[in-house]
Amino acid sequence: MTLAARTLTPGTASGAVLLLHEPLSFWGGFEAHDGRIIDRNHPEHGTVLTGRVVAMAAGRGSSSASSVLAEAIRLGTAPAAIVLGRPDAIVALGALAAVELYGTAMPIVTCAAWADLPAGAIVTVAATAPGGPATIEV
Amino acid sequence: MASDLELTPDEQAVLDGATGEAAALAMRMVVALAHMVGAPRLLEVTRAHIDSCLFHGQAGLDFARHLADLGGRVVVPTTLNVSSLDLRHPALVRLQGQDRADARALMDAYERLGCRPTWTCAPYQLQDRPAFGEHVAWAESNAIVFANSVLGARTERYGDFIDICAALTGRVPDHGLHGDEARRGEVVFDCTGLADEVRAEAVVFPLVGHVVGATTGDAVPVVVGLPDASEDECKALGAAAASSGGVAMFHAVGSTPEAPTLAAALHDEPPARTVEVTTAMLCDARAQLTTSDATELAGVAVGTPHFSLAEFARLRDLFTDTGRSAQVPFHVNTGRDVWDQVVDRGWAGDLEAAGVTVVVDTCTYITPVLDATRPGVVLTDSAKWAYYAPGNIGVEARFASLAACVDSAVAGTVVPDPVLDLLVGPGAP
């Protein structure tokens, strides 16, 4: 099965799907040092995002989320890819900064059907250029 | 690229490196954002305000240093938000070792890029500020909401990395709150049912702001029934709404410039919905901004967003009226520019005698200034401080009016808050 998506940040990556049942704020909700969700009010509190294809409805909260995601990419604790229900420039800009600094691409795409991704299944996210098409191969 | 973004020859030249590698990198980021949001063109901005100067990790420092090493210089007047240090009173912040060095290095990098070392979250309190209709690139949620709502300037929600990229290029995508359509009020918050004496109190503004932020979602809210609000009252409302929610602009009919009338705020269209603001809602807001009802008082923290000159005048009067000084730590955050004006007016000695500690360049909810091991609650009149401080610095917070903050500080214990009781009914100790 292949889902059509839209690119926020380019790149290709594979990983196991992790569905988040609430939007996550990377600032204050996520610890870059170990890749873990630290927001105690979040249903997936304690879950490690590293290497996963993280799917959620939207980003949330502070604009400093960009910095936290870029730091996680630097440290190698970031998700493999992020699938959002709605576009979130704040999250995407963190990934773009990491490309400029470290040459590490992390695809971020929007996909209306994000919640249909099978939890735990290995998928491949292939994203072209900001605003351009993308695919999620299940 | 999928969207139909058209660049001017000048913009294309910057992208191609004609004005240097730093500007080209910054333009790549701005152009990528434009493609993401589907903007048809870029817009020129006249100024920028940078929030990336607060340290959140090595990546942020790497980015600023990389731009500075590439010879980057801002092309529009650019102010800087708070850092995690107070350079005027270095000993106040108990940040040590590498954390302190990192914070300072980040501040230095942004100064190298040509930004003004204003170190304030309230750039709208500086002498030179955006005029009505000016397009700017501002970061920091309370500054964004103030610029759009109170100044009538136009900015989207800019954040880390893109703020300095806008400053280095003088460009942002033509999108969102830069256009008329996104500024249309959609959800009406009707405060006319609140008693007149309630609406006359400054403390109503952060509480209404908290309700608005938690309720309005993505829509621009319109507050009705709080006319002739002061800038400080609008500041408190906006900061609260940008904390409990993602509000980047509000209208207050009769107070903010794009809302001379309700119809004007709604762009002559019917509202999507109307919420009647009740005292019960304000009561809930107060409860949500209070993690402990203990009367043991650890201290007072005000000035989030940064205290204005008018707020210093009122604070000085409140202490003078009591004729006493604070018996617990009493911290006020402000910008160095406002603080210089306070000093020029000769008020610094009065505040010091009252036991007030002034913190500049930073804020007590983001960096270790308070002694979090002191037992008891920290009183604040700031909804934003009450919202974030318990999670950030591990204190118990309790929301109160500024008058009750002062009365409690001089008593050394939390005293009843007559202003808040008036609003939400008795129940405070």
Walk me through the structure.
The complex is a heterodimer of chains A (138) and B (429). By secondary structure, chain A is an alpha/beta fold. Chain A has helices spanning 26-29, 65-75, 89-102; strands spanning 2-9, 11-19, 30-31, 36-37, 53-56, 81-84, 108-110, 122-127, 133-137. Chain B is an alpha/beta fold. Chain B is 40% helix and 14% strand. Chain B contains 17 helices and 14 strands. Chain B is globular and about 65 Å long. The model of chain B has no long low-confidence stretch (mean pLDDT 96). Chains A and B meet through β1, α2 and α3 of A and α2 and α3 of B.
Task: Write the topology of this structure.
The complex is a heterodimer of chains A (138) and B (429).
Chain A: E1 2-9, E2 11-19, H1 26-29, E3 30-31, E4 36-37, E5 53-56, H2 65-75, E6 81-84, H3 89-102, E7 108-110, E8 122-127, E9 133-137
Helix pairs in contact in A: 2-3
Chain B: H1 9-15, H2 21-37, E1 42-44, E2 48-50, H3 58-69, E3 78-80, H4 97-112, E4 137-138, H5 141-151, H6 162-169, E5 171-173, E6 185-190, H7 196-199, H8 204-216, E7 220-224, H9 231-244, E8 251-252, H10 262-265, E9 273-276, H11 279-288, E10 297-307, H12 309-322, E11 330-334, H13 336-344, H14 348-353, E12 356-360, E13 377-380, H15 383-393, E14 396-399, H16 402-411, H17 418-424
Parallel strand pairs in B: 2-3, 2-4, 6-7, 6-9, 7-8, 10-11, 10-13, 11-12, 13-14
Antiparallel strand pairs in B: 1-5
Helix pairs in contact in B: 2-3, 2-6, 3-4, 5-9, 8-9, 8-11, 9-15, 12-16
Number of strands of chain B: 14
Radius of gyration of chain B: 22 Å
Summed up, the helix count of chain A is: 3
Topology, number of strands of chain A: 9
Strand residue percentage of chain A: 25-35%
Terminal residue distance of chain B: 61 Å
> Order of helices and strands of chain A, N to C?
EEHEEEHEHEEE
Number of helices, counting only DSSP H or I runs of 4 residues or more of chain B? 17
Q: Strand fraction band of chain B?
A: 5-15%
pLDDT below 50 for ≥5 consecutive residues: which ranges of chain A? Answer: none
Query: By helix and strand content of chain A, what is the structural category?
Result: alpha/beta
Major sheet: arrangement of strands of chain A = 1-7-6-5-2-8-9
Order of strands across the widest beta sheet of chain B?
12-11-10-13-14
The end-to-end distance of chain A, rounded to whole angstroms, is: 5 Å
Whole-number mean pLDDT of chain B:
96
> How confident is the prediction overall: mean pLDDT of chain A?
95
